[in-house]
């Protein structure tokens, strides 16, 4: 029973389930995954899994929110270690991190693309709100850390730039998936003009946006 476990044991069990779900998500599309398969991968009963998450959507929504929470906290620590940090540094960091999210945190951005159309439809609202509050707090800490170093920006403006970055990645991911169906390439079809080079094209699009918003700042191409 979940209630007989200590807080530390519950945390360990939740991490065990999260790791199992992400391992399977690396190999399959969301629609192909089942709670039974996740329970088996985690080495727990299906009943135990449902004690933690009432639906597949709740589980992956939590993974999404917690993943970005950890990412924002890591980014905050890295910025705090910078001896100098200007507006140009911040905008350049946004571009670098756009590529980093796509290449290093692929599972996270895949989940983010599912959030609106799929995850929100079946996720537990109370659980989502709780984890979203933690994510919001980490986002605020990140924005405030940046704002103290770049006082020409407001916390709201910084948060908005992070939202635009997220939206651009998700949008480009959807475009990049036009030549696939359930993560299976459509080999027999030729959709040449629909093809998107996800990382470079997203960074280029975001650079255009930032240069339009901050025309006096020179952004380099990496």
UniProtKB/TrEMBL annotation:
Keywords: DNA-binding
Pfam families recorded: TetR_C_34, TetR_N
Organism of provenance: Lactiplantibacillus daowaiensis
Name of the protein in its database record: TetR/AcrR family transcriptional regulator
Domain HTH tetR-type: 11-71
InterPro entries named among the record's database cross-references: Homeodomain-like_sf, HTH-type_TetR-like_transc_reg, HTH_TetR, TetR_C_34
Upper taxonomic lineage: Bacteria, Bacillati, Bacillota, Bacilli, Lactobacillales
DNA-binding region: 34-53
PANTHER family, sorted: HTH-TYPE TRANSCRIPTIONAL REGULATOR RUTR, POSSIBLE TRANSCRIPTIONAL REGULATORY PROTEIN
PROSITE patterns, per the entry: HTH_TETR_2 (PS50977)
Domain of life: Bacteria
């Amino acid at each position: 029973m979940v209630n007989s476990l200590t807080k530390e044991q519950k945390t360990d069990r939740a991490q065990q389930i999260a790791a199992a779900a992400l391992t399977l998500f690396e190999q399959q599309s969301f629609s192909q995954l089942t709670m039974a398969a996740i329970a088996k991968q985690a080495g727990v009963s299906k009943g135990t899994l449902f004690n933690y998450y009432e639906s597949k959507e709740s589980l992956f929504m939590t993974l999404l929110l917690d993943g970005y929470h950890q990412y924002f906290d890591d980014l905050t620590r890295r910025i705090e270690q910078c001896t100098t940090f200007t507006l140009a540094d911040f905008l350049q960091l946004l571009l670098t991190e756009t590529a980093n999210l796509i290449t290093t945190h692929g599972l996270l951005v895949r989940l983010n693309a599912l959030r609106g159309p799929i995850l929100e439809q079946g996720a537990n609202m109370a659980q989502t709100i709780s984890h979203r509050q933690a994510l919001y707090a980490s986002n605020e800490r990140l924005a405030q850390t940046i704002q103290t170093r770049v006082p020409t920006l407001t916390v709201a403006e910084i948060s908005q730039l992070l939202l635009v970055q997220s939206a651009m990645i998700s949008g480009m991911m959807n475009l990049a998936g036009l030549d696939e169906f359930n993560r299976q390439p459509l080999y027999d079809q030729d959709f040449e003009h629909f093809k998107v080079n996800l990382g470079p094209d997203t960074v280029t699009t975001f650079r255009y946006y930032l240069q339009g918003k901050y025309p006096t700042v020179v952004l380099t191409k990496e």
